[in-house]
């Protein structure tokens, strides 16, 4: 899924494009040239493409296999499907093969300049995660979204020759445990030790399989976020918690309660003018901003209306440490 619930979208082909009404099978050829603004009709449940009206979803393909479809200025392989959703708006879907999909993920997750073995490892975990989570957005009319909720996908414009080679060098390879494809989580850098999955998503009924148990890393020290500092006003903390739906007064103090085996915080206590709020550390991190509180491996001090965070690593820490994989590859490990 590229775009959900929009009133219009711009479509252009790198050559002639063919539009198919998915209900009737009727096809229309649109000559190469113009940028086409496709809209939903104001009253009827119809898609308007130039002067053609469609009362069902449409599929758009290039008439030449090596040419791309351009959606809102970005190029995509495969076909583009415009769906009419329940709100009489357009949902834009890119349909393509799994390997091309992984090619469009790679540079959004790691640098294509990294060692080839670490790129291969990333390709395997991204492919495994995608296949395991097929139909995650089935109710929205597509398998996976293009955001961090699934995996960040940038289409053809985000591809790189080096990372593409890593994808095709591992073509079709996935990770299995006891014969089943695993949920192959990964994060940017673990700060020295990965985390047990149950310590991060315990409220979702997540089991703690052996392959998602925390282990020592020691290979991710080159990451600039291996050690990080952050200063946040308590007023900002209050505002962020309120925006996340937590009813708090003026924040007075922030305390950490307990640590996991990996050194990450189990729980955060926020003392405020209306009482106390206990939050699982991952929920606190999400409420503040995961780009500010980069992991739950931190200590915090509050003084004169300000919170001072001292942390390690970036991400939830479950599964593969990407910077750890980079460090291992540079130390002679292969991707397997």
Please explain how this structure is put together.
- The mean pLDDT is 95.
- The strands form six sheets. Strands 1-12-11-8-3-4 form a six-stranded antiparallel beta sheet, with no helix packed on it.
- It has helices spanning 98-109, 116-132, 161-169, 234-243, 281-288, 322-330, and strands at residues 3-6, 8-13, 17-21, 27-30, 36-40, 47-49, 52-54, 58-62, 69-71, 74-76, 79-84, 90-95, 176-177, 180-181, 186-187, 228-233, 251-259, 265-272, 275-280, 298-303, 306-311, 320-321.
- The protein has 336 residues and is of the alpha+beta class.
- The two termini are 31 Å apart.
- The protein has six helices and 22 strands.
- Strand 9 (69-71) and strand 10 (74-76) form a beta hairpin.
């Amino acid at each position: 899924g590229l775009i959900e619930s929009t009133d219009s979208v711009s479509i252009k082909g790198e050559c002639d494009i063919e539009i198919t009404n998915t209900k009737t099978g009727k096809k229309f050829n649109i000559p190469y040239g113009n940028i086409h603004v496709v809209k939903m009709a104001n009253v009827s449940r119809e898609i308007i493409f130039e002067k053609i009206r469609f009362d069902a979803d449409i599929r758009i393909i290039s008439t030449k296999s090596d040419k791309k479809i351009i959606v809102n200025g970005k190029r995509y392989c495969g076909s583009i499907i415009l769906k009419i959703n329940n709100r009489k708006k357009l949902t834009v879907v890119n349909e393509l093969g799994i390997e091309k999909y992984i090619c469009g993920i790679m540079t959004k997750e790691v640098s294509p300049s990294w060692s080839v073995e670490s790129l291969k490892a990333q390709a395997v975990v991204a492919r495994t995660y995608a296949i395991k989570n097929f139909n995650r957005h089935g109710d929205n009319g597509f398998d996976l979204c293009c955001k961090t909720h699934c995996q960040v996908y940038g289409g053809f414009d985000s591809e790189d020759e080096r990372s593409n080679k890593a994808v095709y060098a591992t073509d079709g390879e996935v990770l299995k445990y006891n014969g089943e494809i695993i949920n192959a989580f990964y994060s940017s850098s673990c700060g020295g030790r990965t985390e047990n999955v149950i310590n991060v998503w315990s409220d979702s009924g997540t089991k703690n399989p052996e392959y998602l148990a925390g282990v020592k890393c020691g290979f991710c020290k080159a990451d600039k976020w291996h050690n990080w500092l952050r200063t946040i006003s308590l007023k900002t903390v209050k505002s962020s918690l309120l925006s996340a739906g937590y009813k708090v007064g003026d924040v007075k103090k922030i305390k950490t309660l307990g640590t996991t085996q990996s050194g990450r915080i189990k729980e955060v206590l926020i003392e405020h003018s209306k009482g106390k709020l206990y939050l699982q550390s991952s929920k606190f991190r999400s409420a503040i901003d995961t780009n500010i509180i980069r992991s739950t491996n931190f200590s915090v001090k509050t003084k004169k209306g300000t919170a001072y965070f001292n942390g390690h690593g970036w991400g939830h820490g479950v599964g593969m440490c990407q910077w750890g994989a980079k460090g291992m590859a540079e130390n002679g490990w292969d991707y397997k």
